[in-house]
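Observation: inputs received (chain + NAP).
Thought: call the complex predictor directly.
Action: predict_structure
Action Input:
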Amino acid sequence: MHTTEQRSTEPAARGAMRAIIHDGTAFRFAEAPVPRREQPDEVLVRVATISENRGEHGFAWEPGRVVGWDAAGTVVETSADGLGPAVGTRVATWGFSGAWAEYRSVRRGCLAAVPEGVGDAVAASIPVAGMTALQAIRMAGIRPGTGVAITGATGGVGHLAVQLAAEAGAAVTAPVRSPGAAVWLLERPGGDAIRLLDAAEARSLGAVDAVIDAVGGPLLAELLDHVRPGGRAVLVGSASGRRAAVDTGSLAGRRIDLLSVRIPEAVDEALGHLLALVDDGRLEISVEVEGGWERLLAAEPGDGVRGKRVYRVR
Ligand SMILES: NC(=O)c1ccc[n+]([C@@H]2O[C@H](COP(=O)([O-])OP(=O)(O)OC[C@H]3O[C@@H](n4cnc5c(N)ncnc54)[C@H](OP(=O)(O)O)[C@@H]3O)[C@@H](O)[C@H]2O)c1
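Observation:
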């Protein structure tokens, strides 16, 4: 519970802030108004750290809008309905825009309190990648003994998906471009249940119950041939940027379900669950702290990055 005093009103003095927008060509800094809490369940957060997702680079941002999906920071104004976290609570937040800024207004259903043992860099890296990985595992129907192939395992989504699948008892195969450069995945929680496979040798995969794919292209086409009848393929994205030539007749004949992942409806539950797993040491986020957020302006989508990249706002 928090006191009335802690639910202070919007600070009139805090008129403008620094933020990153997209000008139609590139990301750049701009001055923007500190967001107002429009809804009774909105919370104002002073942002400390932001993370970058591959998808943000190709997204069709509305020019001039404050961009970014993931941010961690501290609550400076709680929600007017009195149900939000107390002022001073550290939170991880998600939304379709507004993260890459000094302040972010976010509905309390789109945030979760960060446990004391989890730092801002890790907290900021969780929302999109973690929730996508979690949702993919749920949609793939992973249970103890499920055989699953997960692509893009060295990336933001993938390195969490392989751990979550292993945690759920799956036998995980991760076809990667360079198994030698991906051995760090085996040192994380559930690493014993993960087998690295050279993506170029994916035809030696054997049969699996499910595929979780973040790479697309010929690799996806190959993996789909290995899914057992009645199995599932969860489509996360296409980091390769390539098209997959798929035998739809064979998929239909084998009753393979193709499912597209999306952010879960209960964002606060998913974020809270992921943060608790991290706090318990059952999920380990690989984070590269790149420094101040001005470095984000020059960043390219992260080939070769281990897991996630985050940037400090303050
Ligand atoms: N639907 C959603 O809600 C949602 C949410 C998040 C992400 N996504 C999408 O999912 C995909 C992955 O996102 P991310 O944030 O995890 O990206 P990321 O951190 O950049 O990771 C990309 C991964 O793909 C691998 N990769 C890239 N090109 C490849 C190729 N030609 N062959 C084999 N592997 C390749 C990379 O391997 P290396 O280590 O070898 O470079 C890395 O493991 C993106 O397409 C993104 O837009 C969708």
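Thought: report the result.
Final Answer: The pocket of NAP is lined by residues 53-55, 128-129, 132, 152-158, 177, 199, 214-215, 219, 236-240, 261-263, 301-304 (CB under 6 Å). The domain at 16-126+285-312 is CATH 3.90.180.10 (Quinone Oxidoreductase; Chain A, domain 1).
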